[in-house]
Amino acid sequence: MNGADSLCDTLLANDVDVCFANPGTSEMHFVAALDRKPKMRCVLGLFEGVVTGAADGYARMADKPAATLLHLGPGLGNGLANLHNAKRARTPMVNIVGDHATYHVQYDAPLTSDVEGVARPMSHWVKRTMTAAALSADAAEAVGVARRSPGNIATLILPADTAWTDLPESAAQPVLAPREELTRTSAEAVRAAAAAIRSGEVVTLMLGGTALRERALNAAGRIARATGARLVSETSNRRIERGGSRTPVDRLPYPIDLAVAKLKDVRHLVLVGAKSPVGFFAYPGKPSLLAPADCNQVVLATAEQDLAHALEWLADELGIAADAPRLAAPAASYEVPQSGKLTGAAVNILVARMLPEQAIVCDESITQGREFPIYSASSAPHDWLMLTGGAIGIGLPLATGAAVACPDRKVVTLQADGSGMYTLQALWTQARENLDCLTVILANRSYATLHGEMKNVGVKEPGRNARRMLDLQEPHLEWTHLARGMGVEAVSVDTVEGFARALQEGLKRRGPFLIEAVI
Amino acid sequence: MNGADSLCDTLLANDVDVCFANPGTSEMHFVAALDRKPKMRCVLGLFEGVVTGAADGYARMADKPAATLLHLGPGLGNGLANLHNAKRARTPMVNIVGDHATYHVQYDAPLTSDVEGVARPMSHWVKRTMTAAALSADAAEAVGVARRSPGNIATLILPADTAWTDLPESAAQPVLAPREELTRTSAEAVRAAAAAIRSGEVVTLMLGGTALRERALNAAGRIARATGARLVSETSNRRIERGGSRTPVDRLPYPIDLAVAKLKDVRHLVLVGAKSPVGFFAYPGKPSLLAPADCNQVVLATAEQDLAHALEWLADELGIAADAPRLAAPAASYEVPQSGKLTGAAVNILVARMLPEQAIVCDESITQGREFPIYSASSAPHDWLMLTGGAIGIGLPLATGAAVACPDRKVVTLQADGSGMYTLQALWTQARENLDCLTVILANRSYATLHGEMKNVGVKEPGRNARRMLDLQEPHLEWTHLARGMGVEAVSVDTVEGFARALQEGLKRRGPFLIEAVI
């Protein structure tokens, strides 16, 4: 056995058994080792942004890290934007980044770069293993760090000679990473939150991270129902379990004016795994901090703590019975469009209505999908995964990874066209792995969000330079061709009837399918 | 006027008049400013790897920097791999990277990241401008650094409020960057090189950077013809002017065994803008340094110096007349295939034969194009641009930028399929700008170079995990669909006759066209 074998064995022994990969020459010994470990499922992405985004989607649904395999500084660089999203989602991930042999780095060959430098901005932990003998301990440390609540990006740099150097068979016992218990919040924090709720003033529970999973939400739902406290999630969330009888939670809007309006009368903000809300961007004359300056902010529990326990404890403290009724989603009160020109709203409504049980919704719909959560609050039970770090190009990879994690569930992706183009290569992986991914491209043929932002900066009528940077016309993208080019069947529709038919068809089949919804 | 206007004015005043861009919210004021400066040509890329790769291709052909406009750390991250290539090519480039407003960074909004940290590994110079008043001086400094020989990557971080803050009209005079003269080599260096050549032992002139431009090559060609010195270029080169009556130069092979063999009997290695050659990768039991350990290495001139002057001086020192005959390319001695199953060799031969005058060849053909330089040594005069830093995904963007720089020349891209997938979004920009780009996809449907490397690490028959990471089958890519999806007409051919016809057709038309050459 060699270092690469030791690394693979350690990953497998620590329950990391999926590797999203785009390897290169310096990783060939690792690839050869993977070949000797059929238990490791290797999933190829044709671009590293697909690889890291898929590892994110996988871990969000599997609740355990995947490994990625990346090729030196530039390969890691290609994966950086989706690592940024994963870091913001606090997704656990173990990146294995191949590098030149330890003795070769000094010669500054063309692919040499400062790999640690590239890794650090988007990793919580970075280490370079210098000997084959150290690999198992380092890999176990990486897995341990990745799993530590609320989840971390661990990047292990693997010099080629560390992988290819032989090890004695006595080194065969892989190191196991400890599993850490979640810490719990304090009685003081619970009492402070309870006092805020008992004040009789407007209280909002701001939920983030695992507070958006079913058990925690149920406790929050009892509190909300019993006390009138509002439930609001952060704008960007790793995973929300919702639909069916689950407790609904409002999402803090992305547009700054709406976000400020939503919080303007809040007197007590109870933070449950969430940060005090800040503007996604700064705008001239608008605030950075979104909660009223004089509102009382109480931290019930931080993101790394056991948030379900904290909310249940808070319910107990408030004297709310474990079987007390919970907040319920309002009955759907929208009209279902039947025909005519397709609109973003019609797409959202029809997807919300037809969403199958236990679907996983991957949402990078940007402007066009902002109303989807409203329509889908009473959909069948589903998971809702979204863009967390604002780095566009996550939707298709996220869906790819989620489908690998949950082969028995339908993955429905709401994908804006502009951001979809960033990592469209994910469609190929969906075809290769025959993943049950239905993609809806919301094709408005522009960076619509930026048109809005242009108005925000005072430009009423964009000129030629601006239009050419904000529009995706001339030529428009044909997603059916793009999908077919990567082995995914696709249709394009521009009417409500057409979309309803295509959606029905797409939901019925197994395997990847794409609907270009021209709106 | 505001900071963004001042920045645009400064770029234009310093002869930077093309901006490859993919902007976001934090850059909206810059976009609005660009709208007021119609002299700036804004070219949208649908992914930042396209933006930086196009800026590289532009500068290689225009001999001056373009600007890029990128969106915070993740947008820069997406452009990092092609920045790495540009850094290795020593291409001048000015990156403008938007960031949060100076006062907003502290709140750690979702898109916040360490932008300097992301920039540094692939930039020669990084600066954050903290006030609108400082923007003109900082932008001028960036252009000055970028232009400094042999070319640098300058990254200027632009906080949103720096762009949007108003400036007095008195600030309207943009700062001009000084233009620096090239330094010249020394008489000692010339005498040492001349002594090596006069030794009567085997001498190789190793040429890099601007030593591969016509005037320098002509001087090298006189020396080679008169003295028997061999001319070899580095493996990875920014731009070689070749074909027609230009002096031919051998490229140091990428495969390590071939590279070592090429240099094995060299007694004197004269470095002209080149580094002493090193292995692209390390391999167990193979050397990192490629020249014989005991060979005499002489630096005639370094990359930042005036290499044409150095070679002309060396010719003078050797007593070679300015009109002495030069080394000529051997007459083409290969057979031109007429029919049958298409092969990589047939593609290379036919492209080499049909290459129009002053074509620009962008080469990311990886394994399949290795013989193209042999066949094309006696082609019509052309420029040959190639992958410089080993970060795949540069071919299509490079072509895009080269075509923007040289609208009257045909750009022919030899693109391997695996690497082409990294930045295929460049095809859309070619369609949008109606660029005269003919793309040949060498579709071998695998990462063929890695199959070779697997053999190098001793794996004779790759297993399932390895095959699934090295092959692009199941499903295979259909490049005609991919191209059409982005508005580029395309055909797929798998015979010699079919390819010859398609190539003729593609060369005849103006505007983008793609040929999938299934080999």
UniProtKB/TrEMBL annotation, chains A, B:
Could you tell me the keywords of this UniProt record? Thiamine pyrophosphate, Transferase
Recorded hits in InterPro entries, A to Z, give: THDP-binding (IPR029061), Thiamin_PyroP_enz_TPP-bd_dom (IPR012001), TPP_enz (IPR045229), TPP_enzyme_TPP-bd (IPR011766)
**Residue span, Thiamine pyrophosphate enzyme TPP-binding domain:** 380-516
Which principal EC class is assigned to this enzyme? transferase
> Where in this chain does the record put each Thiamine pyrophosphate enzyme N-terminal TPP-binding domain?
1-106
> Which CDD domains does this entry report, sorted A to Z?
TPP_BFDC (cd02002), TPP_PYR_POX_like (cd07035)
**A single MF term (Gene Ontology):** flavin adenine dinucleotide binding
Q: What is its EC number?
A: 2.2.1.6
Kindly list the biological process annotations in GO that this record carries: small molecule metabolic process
UniProt lists the family membership as follows: Belongs to the TPP enzyme family.
Q: Which protein is depicted?
A: Acetolactate synthase large subunit IlvX
Q: Which organism is it from?
A: Achromobacter agilis
